[in-house]
Specification:
Helix content is 59%, strand content 0%. It is mainly α and 125 residues long.
Length: 125
Amino acid sequence: MTQTYKAPNVPSDRITPEFVRDELLSCFESANREFATLLNQPVTDEQLKQQVKQFVESVFVNCGASYTDPTKQGILTAMNQCRTNAEKMMGPQGAGIIQHHYDEMMKLVDRLQERPVYVATSRLV
């Protein structure tokens, strides 16, 4: 039995949007591994990593969020879409797995600082 995902306890200065996005991949891999076990559908680690990365990237794109330059809001939007998709796919039997993984990710998202937005302005004198 594999370990279920647990958000890493890291210093706040390490919690960047890229770090949280990468943790989302690890979290989603863990959840999908648990789903595969629950459904008795074996999957290799490499297959799972590839499928999860492609899926999560597509969720970011479909939500209008950037995967390569993630923001806190984009990550939240993608997480909520992933959660909705998982709930539809797994139904009640996956509810505990989904809630656990969502809660673990929120431990990181809640500590994530939004990057400041710089807007170019012109000034008339």
